[in-house]
Specification:
heterodimer, A: 471 residues, mainly alpha, two-stranded antiparallel sheet, 1% strand, B: 502 residues, 20 helices, 73% helix
């Protein structure tokens, strides 16, 4: 068979192994070359993927699918991974321990996500999911001397394992009833028996945990707060996108929308609760990591609106929003990282006076936050437009109204950070320095957020091209 | 034929100005201020050019530009102006230009201030000249954030803190805009379902036939969204607090033009696209407008802070605009449009004068003053022009607006119009009381150190004062234009019937 079809995955696995082995074998001084190798490797694989973007193939009797939909998300993961690695350089360099493990684990997590979105059946999907999650368990607990980090790792392990078990149980129920793990075969023989409904509900619950949908969101704030910030970032953008990508593939291919049970309404209610709870709790947060954690719960709710609609605009919205969410969230977290590296604090007061210490960072933070809130001309607005246009087209006017009102409410807490940056007083007036990695990541996030907001056409066309497999 | 994109240039010059300002060194105050002044001057001259060269005989949308923007949503970067939008475009630039000079004495964080101000001006302008719903909404929301930042950074804390005022204003407007956006998306989706074409073009959307129930629902959403922006009773609470907290230039632009986006939207979008919905919801708007006119005027009587007086008075004046819009006939809507223009220049002049006085005396309480005419005759003239315009003295453009609205609305709503006219009495009371207390009477030695308007401080007075008088003595300059635009619009939507005892 032609292994070049799988080249991106194979190369990424080799890169991860190389970084891991070289990091252990080489002396401490050579670490930075290993880290550089990780970065360069990711860039090359990203380029390879872009060049082969429209390639399509079905491997091993439909077990593994190479299609534009999968490639779109692979692109997203690699880009997010790259941005996070860039912004993490300064943060990681503070630790005396060998840092290459950090990069190796991130690469493995990325590989897991890539397997997840390309899986054509449940077992492969599960393997990818576990590869991603297990890498994240370790990364979350990476700050060995930090109690919060250890606690977060343990919590994530226990809750994550439970949710995986639920997912697996759901899969086995489907397999027992319908006799297949392949999405398309399941879709062809889909019936609304009790076991199938229970199975799909469990699968939703399993995914809902990964994408932190209320009421399966409890782990999010603690783990986002405890984990090293770069990992929090990566969890919030990429792991969530992977969850959505896989969920959509399962839902669009395997679950028959004309079945007796109203799946759309179930998802709509979940989305509504998620949006309301995430935004309302975020209003009272005083720690930037917890604030962004609750904000990311709310964001998951918005994306779920698009999945609920499951029509052309809605699905396009999911893909579009997932992509621009990467830039907005990485931008916000990158500024938070720089502030934490400088002050050692993560409360919102630590941002006081940032507009004088670093006008660029204050502006980027504001712009990224506004994009998250969906204020034009930032990219978040175009994304929300697609999501809610999909919802209204599918008949969920109430959901769109609720989502839009809540996203305006969210401006309150997003602007709270801007308020601290622009009018807060800080005794420390020294300009804030940034490494080249973080600077590059920040500029990419800024430009992407603004340009895609003002001119969303190309990305939305790409997203429209990617969802062709469903419509 | 290759044409110069006049509207795009008008729109983009302030943005370019903002970019240049961001590149200048922060200490370069002179350069920053002159850049801003120059940018707004170009926009002002271009909008006067548009005002003069618009072909009134031909009518319709002119200076049209269309560039496809987002294909799958049918969004075009489409600009164009007609008789309804030109007065408001002109208004924006008159006030934008004046607001730069009203902020001339600013010394702290000058660069941020003028960059944000120019973005704000461009944003407001964009809403009036676009013919695409998506782009309209984009510009409409773009302005909210600069305003918030300017209020918290440069505002003043008196009765309420500037943080509170800024956030209140922002959240009110954003919640309103959430309803508006829902309405716009619903409209877009429905139009696509009916016609099979994805389009955000206002003219196209207006040609379709929507169900009456759908129209009522969507119009109600829009009325809430635009109404909040226009400070429609009872959603007006942000307005006085917001103006009191905001720096002078923001108060000028906000009260002067930003609010008018609400009225403009109600006419251009809500009424044109959803006439059947308008016919049903309009009486409710007219009743609420009475709340504006009478309730807000009543509050004005007991206010001592100058900015609160003008703030509530602008709420009250917006009531006239709402009555005009709700009466749904040619004369009343003409009146509403000219009233928006008139109130804009008047409120901006008022705020410019208040800002100047506050800068020098550090108080806005009318009871602290007395006999200011002795020390500051030019400032007094400014206050008097604004004040008399506010109470609708003939010879001022405001009189034309109020008179036309009442003439138009009387045919539709007898009772409401009579009650609304009574509002004029209150207006005269609070305006004359405040101005008399402040400006006239014996000389107060305490204020001898105050310097009268001089140099560039005169610009807002001259520009805005001139606009008030030209509009007042030569009303046809504006009226013909507006009549053209509104007439065409009403001819397109056909006759509307509003029944009842209103």
């Amino acid at each position: 068979m032609d292994f070049s079809i799988l080249a991106a995955e194979i190369l990424l696995a080799l890169l991860g192994l190389a970084v891991l082995v070289l990091g252990l074998a080489l002396p401490g001084k050579a670490q930075k070359y290993v880290n550089g190798l990780a970065l360069v490797g990711m860039v090359l694989i990203l380029l390879y993927l872009i060049l082969n973007f429209s390639r399509e193939a079905s491997l091993f009797n439909g077990v593994y699918q190479i299609d534009v939909y999968g490639n779109y998300f692979k692109l997203l993961f690699l880009m997010a991974g790259l941005l996070v690695m860039l912004m993490a350089a300064q943060y990681i360099s503070r630790f005396k321990e060998k840092s290459s493990e950090f990069y190796a684990l991130m690469i493995f997590a990325t590989l897991g996500m890539m397997l997840m979105v390309a899986a054509g059946e449940f077992i492969t999907l599960y393997v990818g999911l576990e590869l991603m999650t297990i890498s994240f368990y370790i990364l979350t607990a990476y700050l060995k001397s930090d109690k919060l980090s250890g606690e977060a790792g343990l919590k994530y392990l226990i809750l994550g394992a439970t949710s995986s078990a639920i997912l697996l149980f759901g899969i086995s129920l489907l397999y027992a009833s319908l006799g297949s793990t392949n999405f398309i075969e399941i879709g062809a023989s889909f019936s609304s028996s009790a076991a199938v409904i229970a199975g799909v509900v469990m699968i939703i619950a399993g995914f809902a945990f990964k994408i932190s949908v209320v009421p399966f969101h409890m782990w999010t704030p603690d783990i986002y707060q405890g984990a090293p910030i770069p990992i929090t970032t990566y969890l919030s953008v990429a792991s969530k996108a992977a969850g959505f990508a896989a969920l959509l593939r399962v839902f669009m291919l395997a679950v028959d929308p004309n079945a007796v049970f109203n799946w759309g309404l179930l998802l709509a209610v979940l989305a509504a609760i998620t949006i309301v709870v995430g935004n309302l709790i975020a209003l009272s947060q005083r720690d930037i990591k917890r604030l962004l954690a609750y904000s990311s719960i709310a964001q998951a709710g918005y994306i779920l609106v698009g999945a609920t609609a499951a029509n052309s605009y809605g699905l396009k919205g999911v893909l579009f929003y997932a992509m621009i969410y990467v830039f907005a969230n990485v931008g916000a977290f990158a500024v938070a990282t720089a502030v934490e590296v400088d002050t050692g604090r993560t409360d919102i007061e630590a941002f006081a006076g940032l507009s004088k210490r670093s006008p660029l960072m204050a502006a980027i933070m504001t712009i990224c936050m506004l994009s998250l809130a969906g204020i034009p001309p930032m990219a978040g607005f175009a994304g929300k437009f697609y999501l809610f246009a999909g919802a209204i087209e599918a008949g969920y006017l109430w959901l769109a109204l609720l989502g839009l009102v809540m996203s305006m409410v969210s401006v309150y807490y997003y602007l709270g950070v801007s308020k601290a940056m622009y009018i807060g007083e800080n005794t420390d007036q020294a300009p804030l320095s940034l490494g080249w990695g973080s600077t590059a990541a920040l500029w990419v996030c800024l430009l992407a957020t603004v340009i895609l907001g003002v001119y969303p056409g190309p990305l939305s066309e790409l997203a429209g091209y990617a969802i062709k497999i469903f419509i | 034929m290759y044409e110069i994109p006049v509207l795009t240039i008008t729109l983009i010059v302030p943005l370019l100005g903002a970019m240049i300002i961001m590149c200048l060194p922060a200490g370069q105050h002179k350069g920053i201020k002159w850049t801003a002044a120059f940018a707004t001057l170009i926009s002002l001259l271009l909008s006067i050019f548009i005002f003069l060269t618009y072909d009134r005989a031909l009518g319709g949308m002119q200076f049209v530009e269309t560039i496809p923007w987002i294909r799958d949503l049918g969004v075009n970067y489409a600009l164009g102006v007609d008789g309804i939008s030109i007065p408001l475009l002109l208004l924006t630039n008159l006030i934008g230009f004046s607001s730069i000079y009203a902020s001339w004495n600013l010394r702290e964080r000058v660069r941020e201030f003028f960059a944000l101000l120019l973005i704000l001006i461009a944003g407001v302008m964009g809403t009036f000249i676009t013919t695409d719903l998506f782009i309209f909404f984009l510009f409409y929301e773009v302005v909210v954030i600069p305003i918030y930042l300017m209020v918290i950074m440069f505002g003043s804390t008196k009765r309420v803190s500037k943080e509170y005022a800024g956030m209140k204003l922002t959240i009110y407007l954003l919640i309103g805009s959430a309803f508006l956006l829902t309405a716009l998306i619903a409209l877009f989706v429905q139009a696509r379902a009916i016609s099979g074409i994805a389009s955000m073009d206002m003219a196209f959307l207006a040609t379709l036939n929507y169900g009456v129930e759908f129209q009522i629902l969507v119009y109600a959403f829009m009325a809430f969204g635009f109404g909040t922006l226009l400070s429609m009773f009872p959603f007006h609470a942000w307005s006085p607090d917001g103006y009191a907290g905001a720096p002078t230039a923001v108060s000028m632009i906000h009260a002067g033009v930003l609010k008018k986006i609400g009225g403009y939207g109600l006419i251009r979008i809500a009424l044109t696209i959803l006439p059947a919905g308008a016919a049903v919801v309009a009486p409710i708007i007219a009743v609420l407008a009475l709340g504006n006119i009478i309730y807000a005027a009543y509050i004005c009587l007991s206010q001592k802070d100058l900015k609160y007086i003008v703030g509530y008075s602008s709420v009250s004046h917006m009531g006239y605009v709402l009555v005009g819009i709700a009466a749904l006939n040619l004369i009343s809507i003409n009146g509403a449009v000219i009233m928006m223009f008139a109130h804009g220049v008047m409120a901006a002049l008022f705020f410019a004068m208040i800002g100047n006085l506050y800068e020098k005396s550090h108080t806005r309480n009318i009871e602290d003053f007395g006999g200011l005419a002795h020390q500051m005759p030019k400032l007094t003239a400014g206050f008097m022009i604004a004040g008399l315009a506010s109470l609708g003295l003939p010879g001022m453009v405001n009189f034309i607006g109020e008179f036309t609205i009442f003439v138009g609305a009387f045919g539709t709503y007898r009772v409401i119009t009579i009650l609304a006219i009574s509002g004029i009495v209150f207006t005269a009371l609070y305006v004359l009381r405040a101005l008399g207390r402040m400006l006239f009477g014996p000389r107060n030695e305490k204020w001898d150190h105050l310097q009268d308007l001089k140099g560039v401080e005169m610009v807002p007075l001259l520009v805005l004062g001139l606009a008030i008088f030209i509009g007042g003595f030569l009303p046809f300059t504006l009226m013909d234009l507006i009549n053209n635009g509104v007439g065409e619009m009403l001819a397109q939507i056909g006759p509307l019937q509003i029944g009842g005892w209103w």
